[in-house]
């Protein structure tokens, strides 16, 4: 900010420039659907405290009173649910706010008081759940205080037992000091092959558009998943996470365990991939490449690596990373 804006420019000065006049939630929903995403997590409020919905406890510091003059959370929730019915709608929410005087007072009191939580954080969370019924709540901004300050256990008990989303909601693990990577009803601190989930950040412009380069990448990701999604969706870890011989080969398994997938990040220079973590059977093993119609040739001598012959790259549907589907391997 010091390099690009006048002296004493504040977050409050940004708000009128956040107009979102070109925000098209239906178009966003279509892009997210095309990307292959299974859930969308919109930032409802970040650390500066500006709410992207007309919160009753954020007077004159929300998207209805300042800037866009619309309910961004509600508009996207409606579009996601009507245009992309297989995508789950979620919300990111920051527990704390950098500049809120009530939070700063609680912090000065070593969090022996929780005026901010009672008058701001908790009312916001109850609003979001009651009004928009998110299936994911991605909490953040918890790291300066313990869960008892944030009233996390009380809120989560209501969320999972009495709220309108009690049977569908998923939360992360940022609800107080010491909780991160230890709790949460999503796979923490790992990628799909561990297993886990990948949340891709998309930064829209001030006028509400997804930048073309980001839209292009999202659609490319969806194109790759159209071909190779079997190695990602509804899979589980295999015996080996990555190959013991060749760098850049990662394994997953189908949920029933019948198929093993090898995601290859680098095309082998001689079109011959050497795999040290699988054992093949000349009678029962079948190896194919997703996006290529013919079975792949392979060989393996007892006690040595398996050697898989790749087809010409020009005959393969995608050029980013390649997936082998293997049946009858151990």
Question: How does this structure look, described?
Answer:
The protein has 330 residues and is α/β, with parallel strands linked by helices. The chain folds into two domains: 11-210, Glycosidases (TIM Barrel); 235-327, Sandwich (Immunoglobulin-like), CATH 2.60.40. The protein is built from eight helices and twelve strands. The strands form three sheets. A five-stranded antiparallel sheet has the order 5-6-7-12-9, with no helix packed on it. It has a four-stranded parallel sheet with strand order 1-2-3-4. Helix 2 packs across helix 3. The longest helix is centred in the middle third of the chain and has 18 residues, at 115-132.
At a glance:
This protein is of the alpha/beta class. The protein contains 8 helices and 12 strands.
List its salient traits.
8 helices, Glyco_hydro_29_N, TIM Barrel, EC 3.2.1.51, hydrolase, alpha-L-fucosidase activity, 25% helix, Immunoglobulin-like, five-stranded antiparallel beta sheet, 330 residues, 2 domains, four-stranded parallel beta sheet, alpha/beta
In terms of topology, how is this protein built?
Blueprint: H1 11-14, H2 25-34, E1 39-45, H3 72-83, E2 88-94, H4 101-108, H5 115-132, E3 136-140, H6 147-150, H7 152-161, E4 170-171, H8 212-228, E5 235-236, E6 249-254, E7 259-264, E8 272-275, E9 286-289, E10 298-300, E11 306-309, E12 322-327
Parallel strand pairs: 1-2, 2-3, 3-4
Antiparallel strand pairs: 5-6, 6-7, 7-12, 8-11, 9-12, 10-11
């Amino acid at each position: 900010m010091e390099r690009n804006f006048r002296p004493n420019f504040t977050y409050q000065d940004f708000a009128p420039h956040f107009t979102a006049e070109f925000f098209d939630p239906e178009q966003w929903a279509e892009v997210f659907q095309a990307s292959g995403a299974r859930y969308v997590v919109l930032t409802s409020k970040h650390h500066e405290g500006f709410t992207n919905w007309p919160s009753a406890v954020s007077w004159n510091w929300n998207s209805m009173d300042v800037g866009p003059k619309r309910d961004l959370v509600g508009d996207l929730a409606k579009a996601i649910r009507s245009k992309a019915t297989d995508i789950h709608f979620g919300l990111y929410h920051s527990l704390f706010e950098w500049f809120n005087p009530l939070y700063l007072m609680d912090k000065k009191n070593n969090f022996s008081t929780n005026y901010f939580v009672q008058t701001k954080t908790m009312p916001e969370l109850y609003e979001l759940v009651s009004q928009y019924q998110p299936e994911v709540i991605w909490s953040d901004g918890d790291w300066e205080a313990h869960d008892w300050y944030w009233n996390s256990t009380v809120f989560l008990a209501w969320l999972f037992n009495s709220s309108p989303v009690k049977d569908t909601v998923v939360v992360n693990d940022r609800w107080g000091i010491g909780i991160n990577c230890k709790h949460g009803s999503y796979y923490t601190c790992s990628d799909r092959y561990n297993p886990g989930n990948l949340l891709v950040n998309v930064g829209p412009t001030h006028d509400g558009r997804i930048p073309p380069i980001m839209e292009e990448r999202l659609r490319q990701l969806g194109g790759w998943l159209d071909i190779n999604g079997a190695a990602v969706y509804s899979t589980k870890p295999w015996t080996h996470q990555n190959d013991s011989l060749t760098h850049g080969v990662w394994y997953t398994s189908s949920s029933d365990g019948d198929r093993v997938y090898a995601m290859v990040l680098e095309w082998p220079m001689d079109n011959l991939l050497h795999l040290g973590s699988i054992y093949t059977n000349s009678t029962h093993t079948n190896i194919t490449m997703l996006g290529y119609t013919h079975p792949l040739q392979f060989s393996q001598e007892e006690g040595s690596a398996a050697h898989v012959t790749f087809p010409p790259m020009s005959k393969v549907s995608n050029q980013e990373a390649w997936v082998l589907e293997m049946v009858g391997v151990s």
